[in-house]
Automatic annotation (TrEMBL):
Its EC number is 2.7.7.7. InterPro entries: DNA_pol_HolB (IPR004622), DNA_pol_III_delta_C (IPR015199), DNA_Rep/Repair_Clamp_Loader (IPR050238), P-loop_NTPase (IPR027417). Gene3D superfamilies: 1.20.272.10, P-loop containing nucleotide triphosphate hydrolases. It catalyses: DNA(n) + a 2'-deoxyribonucleoside 5'-triphosphate = DNA(n+1) + diphosphate. The lineage of its organism: Bacteria, Pseudomonadati, Pseudomonadota, Gammaproteobacteria, Oceanospirillales. One of its GO terms (molecular function) is DNA-directed DNA polymerase activity. Keywords: DNA replication, DNA-directed DNA polymerase, Nucleotidyltransferase, Transferase. This is DNA polymerase III subunit delta'. It comes from the Bacteria. It holds the Pfam family DNApol3-delta_C.
Length: 339
């Protein structure tokens, strides 16, 4: 999820299209109580949602020549939002990363919405990621979406619209957050990390999702990525699957499955087209070259992606033994490459 600290947030350059559409709806008093913010992972959807929430609660929005209305940063509501202590602003997210938003959390949300505002009369709730709600949680939210209390806005944040129940989608206005251009993503990351010399690689492997690139840098995920790719190389050179799986045990399983999936996708493109320029993870040239040299059947690569998807689904529902899962994936990988 997009990581943001307690400070007053404003929409970013590439948010302008969605921000302008929201302001137009707000100006015409057509802004729905249920708002669905969606788009590519890492484009700053949570950043955008919080900026919108701050604007909706602001007493004296300021006018910007480029972006239009913005939170003023000076009123009491803005000061409380800066401190992360606004009593009428609620963020609902999974209690544990990668797990579901529980029905009890949605019931607490419903209670929050039913209460009288403590400040300006408005309330804002952000649910992120909204597709973390299971069927029970989603059903518990429906009535509140249909009949919200008072001047309340529910902002649902999600990567893909299709991951939400149709009954949830039908009760919301949609706003897509488009990804930044490569230049915009590069500028954003160079401002954050002026000392790094791998910004172009970060832009590419994050698929122009600068907030995901930020996660990679600040949460140690680049080290995980390096360990995973090296392990795939090592197992084909005779290193024990058990030993490699042990070295991977600190790596988040869902994150590992994500990386393995996009690498396999790259490998399928490379094997079928022989065009390495279309490979997004070109910095892993040794791994890609190894797969190319072994002339792996694309059907095996497609099947491996299916296995990754099955494991991801099982992981979300339960707590599998990571080391056993990694060992299985390594054994299957080794067989696929004929090592």
């Amino acid at each position: 999820m997009d990581d943001v600290t307690h400070s007053l947030l404003y929409p970013l350059d590439w948010h302008k299209t969605a921000w302008s559409a929201l302001l137009e709806a707000l100006k015409k008093d057509h802004l729905a109580h249920g708002l669905l913010i969606y788009g590519h992972h890492g484009v700053g959807k949570m950043h955008f949602a919080k900026a919108l929430g701050y604007l909706l609660l602001c007493d004296q929005p300021q006018v910007d020549s480029v972006l239009g209305s913005l939170p003023c940063g000076q009123c009491n509501n803005c000061m409380l939002n800066k401190a992360g202590t606004h009593p009428d602003f609620l963020v609902v997210e999974p209690e544990e990363q990668g797990k579901a938003i529980k029905v009890d959390q949605v019931r607490e949300l419903n209670h929050f919405v039913s209460q009288t505002s403590q400040m300006s009369g408005k309330k804002v709730v952000i649910i992120e990621p909204a597709d973390a709600m299971n069927i029970n949680s989603s059903n518990a939210l429906l009535k509140t979406l249909e009949e919200p209390s008072g001047d309340t806005h529910l902002i649902l944040v999600v990567d893909s619209l299709s991951s939400l129940m149709a009954t949830i989608r039908s009760r919301c206005q949609y706003y897509e957050i488009l990804p930044p251009t490569k230049e915009q993503a590069s500028v954003f990351l160079r401002d954050l990390y002026p000392e790094r010399n791998d910004i172009d690689v970060l832009v590419k492997i994050s698929e122009q999702g600068p907030f995901y690139a930020k996660e990679l840098v600040e949460q140690g995920k680049l080290e995980w990525r390096s360990s995973l790719s090296q392990g795939l190389m090592d197992v084909c050179s005779g290193k024990s699957t058990v030993e490699i799986a042990e070295s991977w045990k600190s790596i988040d399983l869902l994150e590992a499955l994500h990386w393995l999936d996009i690498w396999i996708r790259d490998m399928i493109v490379m094997v079928m087209t022989q065009d390495k320029s279309r490979v997004k993870n070109a910095d892993l040239s040794d791994l890609m070259t190894m797969v190319e040299s072994r002339q792996v059947d694309p059907r095996f690569l497609h099947r491996y992606r299916e296995v990754l998807s099955e494991i991801e689904e099982a992981t979300i529902k339960s707590h599998p033994n990571k080391q056993l899962v990694y060992d299985r994936l390594l054994i299957d990988w080794k067989k696929m490459l004929g090592a």
